[in-house]
Design a protein that fits this description.
Blueprint: E1 5-16, E2 19-30, E3 34-38, H1 45-52, E4 60-65, H2 70-73, E5 77-80, H3 94-99, H4 103-106, H5 114-126, H6 142-154, E6 160-164, H7 172-185, E7 190-194, H8 198-204, E8 207-212, E9 214-220, H9 225-232
Helix pairs in contact: 5-6
Length: 252
């Protein structure tokens, strides 16, 4: 059975304050994809996610999400932003944060049903945070908080999960566990992961997109040094750990 196309961008251009951010982007995301997006700071990675979500309208081109406009189709998308700004002293529990994910389904001012609460419980079980459901979210570690935010996204029953630099606030020792969680989730939904960690991305994702205002590459995760040089506009040398002691990088 052919994979369902969830997102399609055709010749998308975006300007912000007259500055070109995205140029002639053509991209298709299917239901079985685990796509890693890499590229330099300021290259348009976050903007691309916001275009898919309908938070930024392109100046040119067409965007389709689940066969609809992004504004209508985004109800099928779970989104974890790069920065989760909240008051760490605000007395809200882990369970209540996850329940907030149901607002997109029931409306902002409606009471949660028992079914909503069961969905929140299952989401917490999925990210292995059920034992923390009564804890104040601001008292958790960065890695634990990210699991809670993923549970909140899962409470929307998404077909697609968008993650913008999700490991930025996670201790390196916990990052492997976080990626293992994504490994399990990819069996249930498509995932798009924006990251600077090229080594981790190359291990876990099934496809890579190299973005620096343009898409310089989109395909197999076996991306070449030449494609990375085109993306980052600087010399790149790939290191093979365990094969040689070291390699001298080209002058830059």
């Amino acid at each position: 059975m052919a994979a369902e196309e969830l997102v399609r961008l055709d010749d998308v251009w975006v300007y912000r304050d007259s500055i070109l951010v995205l140029e002639k982007i053509n991209l298709s995301i299917k239901s079985n994809d685990f796509l890693g997006i890499i590229g330099p700071n300021g290259g348009g990675k976050t903007t691309l996610l916001k275009v898919i979500l309908g938070l930024i309208k392109p100046n040119r081109g067409k965007v389709s999400v689940m066969g609809q406009t992004p504004e209508r189709g985004r109800r099928f998308i779970g989104y974890i932003s790069q920065f989760n700004l909240f008051d760490f002293d605000f007395p809200i529990s882990v369970f209540d944060v996850v329940l907030m994910g149901r607002y997109s389904k029931i409306g902002l001012f409606r009471r949660h049903s028992e079914a909503d609460k069961e969905i929140a419980i299952e989401a917490l079980k999925t990210v292995e945070m059920l034992d923390y459901k009564d804890r104040q979210v601001g008292r958790l570690s960065g890695g634990e908080q990210q699991r809670v935010f993923i549970a909140r996204a899962l409470a929307t029953n998404p077909k697609l999960l968008l993650l913008d630099e999700p490991t930025a606030s996670i201790d390196p020792n916990m990052q492997a566990e976080f990626y293992e969680l994504l490994e399990r989730l990819k069996e249930r939904m498509a995932i798009v992961l924006v990251s600077h960690d090229i080594s981790a991305v190359s291990i876990y994702v099934s496809e890579i997109a190299c973005l620096n205002h343009q898409l310089f590459y989109h395909g197999s995760k076996e991306v070449s040094a030449e494609e990375l040089e085109r993306t980052y506009h600087c010399p790149i040398q790939l290191l093979a750990h365990g094969t040689v002691p070291h390699r001298v990088l080209k002058e830059h």
